[in-house]
Amino acid sequence: MGLRSTRIRGPLGRILAAVLLGATALTGCGPTANVVTDVGATGGTPVRGGTATMALPPAASPNWIFPIGAPGYLATYNKAIQNLLFLPLYTAEKKGDALTMDSPRNLAEQPRYSDGNKTVTITLKKGYTWSDGVPVTTRDVKFWFDLIKGNKKEWAGYSPSLMPDDVTAFETVDDRTFRLRLDRAYNPAWFTGNQLDSFLALPVHAWNPQNEDPKTAFARLTQHAKQFSQFATDPLWKTVNGPWTIEKWNTSGQVSLVPNKNYRGPDKPHLDRVVFKPFTTADSEFNVLRAGGVDYGYIPPSVMAQSAKFKEMGYRIDPWDGWAITYIVLNFNHPTAGPLLRQSYLRQALQYLIDQKSISKVIWHGSAAPTLGPVPAGLLDGEPYPYDPEQAKRLLAAHGWADRDGTLRCVRPGTGAAECGTGVKDGQELRLSLLSQSGSTETSNTMQAVKSEFGKAGITLDIRQQPLNTVLGTTVPCKKDEPICGEWQLGFFGTQGSWYFPTDPSGEKLFATNAPSNMGNWSDPRTDRLIRDTEYSDAPAAMRDYGREVARQLPVLWTPNPAYQVSAIRNDLRGIDQNVTLTLAPQDWYFVTKDGAGK
Fold first, then answer.
1. C-beta separation of 55 from 564 below 8 A
2. Cα-Cα-Cα-Cα dihedral of 385, 389, 390, 391, to 10°?
3. Which of 26, 380, 506, 587 could form a disulfide with 372 if both were Cys (CB 3.0 to 4.6 A apart)?
4. Tens digit of each residue's pLDDT (9 = 90 or more) over 132-180
5. Torsion sign across C-alpha atoms 425, 527, 436, 13
6. What is the DSSP code string of 294-361?
């Protein structure tokens, strides 16, 4: 096994070389199995049936089935699987270079805006039923709406003043049509992409036969959703309207789905079964992939040089890019780190110490690119804090930090322009701790590179790693007096990207005050105002102004945004569309053979 490196000159090159040499390298370890298929990447005769196994991300296991998200259970693979069971009214898919909400998989027709964009009328498509044969109606959508309205603070998708607060009335027109009265006029593209994307129909006849009030029903359903070991057997989760139903869901996170025989959509499954298989690390997944043990897996970026050998083995290599950004979360409410992180000069210094370009090139082997701000990089026109360690040191010195016996400490406490800032104590050490997800060599090496750069500027960074679900369950929005707020200072859960946007990459769920995914508790009136501008106006300047300002403010630290994964897919498995929003459509997958024989 050899180490293949890219030469980067200077101090960072030595740091990255040390990081990489200190890690187990997979480069040079090619596939060990025989060719898994004699079908090329094109051609072949489609066959019906078969089982396709897809590898889940490292240290990630599906653990939430109730399609109303709860804090700490927001991993993309949870939602992706839920959407295969319970159809969203609207889902995003790529159309050319843009994203559209006009998908044939939608449960509803395109929304109709009227009354100066203050009223939205929605009609469900004809013919859809639940798996027990009961028709899907507006009553099922109203059930979902009543649940989130009556329990909005328990819903992880809730942002104050947005859904459901922005709907003043839900009016049922008939069994297939309903009307939303809004509290003001909204940008239709934003409202469809970022508000209506949450809407679902839930089987009220099966989930609330006693007509309980929304709070009682929600509490009961949530209790069922916490019984992880019973996801496959609980009758509640058997009533679905999507193309798939649960066959098995074990406590290790392996999920097996089979076709819903009563599915009425246009995209009925071709396969007999699809299996989502968890792995503790990317290395363990790679070993199974090399042995031909998964049909749809991924290769670590460090072994990109082995792509040709995988192609010889019968796989095609396809990077799965996402409509995403990646970052390190900063907990502004932490009792001791919070006062430090609230200093804008300190956040700027920390950002100047992250060499995104070199980390993307060396550690991620070109499968990542710098995050420039709160929207995908293509929507921004520059990096406000490019790698500049000397500027970082100057900023810290100018604000009262100096080396004392090998440790950077505050020597000028106070709130003046040349002092350490509000809440920073005399003699306080500049030391931070980072909770990062485990299972990825690239993530581990990235954090070690950041730690080394911080250390050269006198900043101590302590790193501990935990499985992704643990990190997501810990790095949640919190108040200063809540115990969990003292459990983490910085957090990272971005091995496959930290945040995947809906069609409109506005920030109401990320950086608005009290937003559901505002993990670090950032709050800034100007940010809130700019976010509202993107919600109300479709002018390009609104999104541009928001992106530039929040990139400059640094509510988080921007880090390289990786491809979701570098996929390795069997040549004889077709129909896969790697959606940039990370939705899955295994109902479109099918196998092919040369001679048309069954698989």
1. no
2. 20
3. 380
4. 999 999 999 999 999 999 999 999 989 889 999 999 999 999 999 999 9
5. negative
6. -SEEEE-GGGGGGHHHHHHHTEEEEEE--SEE-EEEE-TT-TTHHHHHT-HHHHHHHHHT--HHHHHH
